[in-house]
Write a structure and sequence with these properties.
The chain is mostly helical and about 300 residues long. The radius of gyration is 24 Å and the shape is globular. It contains 13 helices and two strands; from the N terminus they run αααββαααααααααα. It has one domain: MetI-like (MetI-like fold). The longest helix is centred in the first third of the chain and has 34 residues.
Length: about 300
């Protein structure tokens, strides 16, 4: 049997490895090559231009506007999503206090988990259309209709450049929170309840238990959540495409790199320039993930 072990392993892994190289590695390599050409999607042999497209990126105001928006997303979206998700997860698992000698969540925790997770089952396009109705700039919008009842003038949630990006971030957070409530709930449920019960007997309040017990023991899950949300912050294409005024407006106030890649490739047929943006986005995402894993790395706590 040992004679056939390695051929069996190689044969078993060959098919997925070939598929991965063909459908993942190969497109990346093609994108890197196209980024150094002036290909417009028509000619079979594009002209090689070296780093010209990357030099143009350094002078492109729209590109830098998109990068600034990603920085805002990178800070605001993970912070808000994780903070809200941790709060709800703590309530659902430990917020009900001690009953019968055991720590429990608030009443109806199972129902609330379903409610929080519901946005995850909606397609992004549906979420975008839903919030188009909520954010309408007149009294027919859900929010402005409520404000009108209090005598407040309608707000251009998506037409005001100062708040348009934050309005879209709010939608991203709303859609993402449910998944991380479930993720953090799973992490909290894995922590032995005896730890919390012992802390409660020693007189620790909920605030102290949250910061001294829950967060340290949930650190690995938080790290994973932060990386996922950071990578999501480098996307945002679908919601910006559906919600924003004139796809990234007003005045590029909400544009993001994936949208600019799509615009340059399919609207302007600048496939080489679009690929250069894609390469820049690739390295930004990889750099973020590596730095986050390095900075947040800490000794694992066993329990």
């Amino acid at each position: 049997m040992r004679h056939g072990k390695y051929p069996f392993i190689i044969g078993f892994l060959a098919a997925p490895l070939i598929l991965y190289v063909v459908f993942v590695i190969s497109p990346y390599l093609q994108a890197f090559y196209i980024a150094m050409t002036d290909w417009r999607g028509i000619t079979a042999s594009p002209n090689f231009t070296g780093l010209d497209n990357f030099a143009r990126l350094l002078e492109d105001e729209v590109f830098w506007a998109a990068v600034r928006h990603h920085i805002v997303l990178l800070v605001a979206m993970p912070l808000l999503t994780i903070a809200i998700a941790l709060f709800f997860a703590y309530l659902l698992n430990l917020g009900g206090g001690s009953r019968g000698g055991r720590m429990n969540g608030v009443a109806g925790s199972g129902f609330y988990r379903v409610v929080f997770f519901f946005p995850q089952v909606l397609a992004v396009a549906i979420v975008g259309v839903l919030f188009q109705a909520i954010y309408r700039p007149d009294e027919s919008g859900v929010i402005n209709g409520v404000l009108a009842r209090f005598g407040i003038e309608p707000v251009g949630w998506l037409t005001n450049p100062d708040i348009a990006l934050w309005s879209i971030i709010a939608v991203m957070v709303w859609q993402a929170v449910g998944f991380y409530v479930v993720l953090f709930s799973a992490g909290m449920s894995a922590i032995p309840k005896d730890v919390f019960e012992a802390a409660a007997l020693d007189g620790a309040g909920r605030f102290r238990m949250f910061f001294s017990i829950t967060l340290p023991l949930l650190w690995d899950t938080l790290q994973v959540g932060w990386v996922y949300l950071g990578i999501a912050a480098f996307d945002g294409f679908a919601l910006v495409q559906v919600l924003s005024v004139d796809r990234g407006g007003p005045d590029n106030a909400t544009t993001v790199l994936p949208l600019e890649i799509w615009r340059n490739a399919f609207n302007f047929s600048k496939y080489g320039y679009a690929s250069a943006m894609g390469v820049a986005l690739f390295f930004m995402t990889i750099t973020f993930a590596v730095l986050t894993l390095r900075v947040t790395r800490r000794e694992r706590i066993e329990y």
